[in-house]
């Protein structure tokens, strides 16, 4: 693992910038990754122009899952919902900047799954397995 990125992940895990809940919120969703025991909840505020004005997460689990969520909240703050819907596996990998094996990949993608659950609704969300293979 690249040292710089490892430092970013440890820092985000220990000192998350977007930790917390939003009350009221316009979107909220939570899920877990049973393989690793990671859990993430994401709250969003989306304004009447369909822009994400605030994004926060709470959760527990490994450093990859929590750092991924924190970096993702930063990325989507100020982003149109249409662009949030377009986020894919590669966007998460770019944020983390490291190579991930199949188990860690699901840790990294949990935040994307939860985010998509929030903006799409339950029925349209890919499973972690599907996301990892996307
Ligand atoms: Zn994990």
Give a verbal description of the structure:
With 134 residues, the chain is α+β, with helices and mostly antiparallel strands. The protein has a single domain (2-133), classed as Sufe protein. Chain: A (Alpha-Beta Complex), CATH 3.90.1010.10. Helices cover 47% and strands 19% of the residues. The protein contains 6 helices and 3 strands, in the order H-E-E-E-H-H-H-H-H. Strands 1-2-3 form a 3-stranded antiparallel β-sheet, with helices on one face. The model has no long low-confidence stretch (mean pLDDT 92). Bound molecules: zinc ion. Zinc ion binds at residues 33, 36, 38, 61-62, 64-65, 107.
Assign the CATH architecture.
Alpha-Beta Complex
Helix content: 40-55%
Report the radius of gyration as a whole number of Å.
14 Å
Question: What shape does the CA trace take?
Answer: globular
Quickly count the domains: 1
Q: If helices are DSSP runs of H or I spanning 4 or more residues, what is the number of helices?
A: 6
Beta-strand fraction estimate: 15-25%
Please report the total strand number as a whole number.
Answer: 3
The CATH first-level class comes to Alpha Beta
The overall pLDDT, averaged over residues, is 92
């Amino acid at each position: 693992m690249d040292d710089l990125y490892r430092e970013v992940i440890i820092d985000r895990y220990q000192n998350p910038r977007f930790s917390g809940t939003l009350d009221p919120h316009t979107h909220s969703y939570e899920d877990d990754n049973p393989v690793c025991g990671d859990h993430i909840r994401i709250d969003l505020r989306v304004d009447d122009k369909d822009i994400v004005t605030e994004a926060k997460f709470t959760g527990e689990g490994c450093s990859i899952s929590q750092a991924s969520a924190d970096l993702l909240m930063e990325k989507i703050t100020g982003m149109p919902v249409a662009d949030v819907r377009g986020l894919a596996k590669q966007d998460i990998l770019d944020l983390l900047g490291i190579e991930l094996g199949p188990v860690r990949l699901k840790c990294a993608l949990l935040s994307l799954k939860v985010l998509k659950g929030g903006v799409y609704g339950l029925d349209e969300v890919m499973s972690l397995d599907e996301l990892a293979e996307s």
